[in-house]
Amino acid sequence: MPVLPSVAVVILNWNGKAFLEKFLPSVCRSTYGNLQLVLADNASTDDSVAFVEAHYPRIRVIRNARNDGFAGGYNDALQHVTADIYVLLNQDVEVEAGWIEPVVALMQEDPRIAACQPKMRAYLQPDEFEYAGAAGGWMDFLGYTFCRGRILYTVEKDYGQYNNASDIFWATGAALFIRSECFHQMGGFDRDFFAHMEEVDLCWRLQRAGYRICYCPDSTVFHVGGGSLPQGNPRKLYLNFRNNLMMLWKNLHSEDRWIVLVQRFFLDILAAVKSLVAGKPKDMAAIYRAYRDYYRWRRNYVKKDHLPEMKLMKMTGVFHGIMIWRYYFLRRKKFSELI
Locate the Glycosyltransferase 2-like domain: which residues (predicted)? Predict the structure, then answer.
């Protein structure tokens, strides 16, 4: 019999005892035959590490010296984990017993599949897709991200409409399967991001390196979402805007960079004005801070990779249009209506 690829499920934790109590039992029921479980703790101040060490001796604990967010936390921890495939799993995700096997089988079909995600449904509304990943991530040519099954805040019910394995632009960081060799080849996540959009940036770089990103419908996980920062939090809005701009500057082809970023600037001004009119001045301030810090970052930016430039329109999982235009003005709020 062929040897199963070794898999390490690595859960990044920060003060997440309540989530660990609730969801670790499902992870420990995973049936994959060549599996290790790891808790990477980002300098928690609660007793979550003590809880895991007392109740789950099977789980290896890695203690990061400080909280460097999602990007830095995983980069540090994965330096100490040896496996063929890493599974980066949020602390607020419930899994089914056989959730690993289908994704690994799909990845084994083609060594160019560097990263993959399962179907992601909402823990609190299990018949619906979940915001963070749904049935795989896409992006439009201005850098606005969305999913099969979720566009902006419109989330579809799962009727089996996305039960086909497919190539996508990005795989969710809430349940990210990635070949360890590819992760380290790319230098891991970009630490400058801290949290949010770092998996989109990583998947973009993987595609530029010639790899594929895929969605596996035969595996389903259930995500609470907002475990660290809930939707509507100005801090989350700030990180999403700032990191998206940083990602575009890093990855866009030099011929397209200014064309895209100028259009984004005017659309983001509209978003800021809309927030103010809606009585959300903190959201407008978050967008302002995002641009301020993006420009500060850009002044000091030093290119970190030597990947070939690639036109965004030639990549997989890219919508050749403006998603927000079709969503707000043409009222196309489902993936099937958009693409």
Answer: 9-133
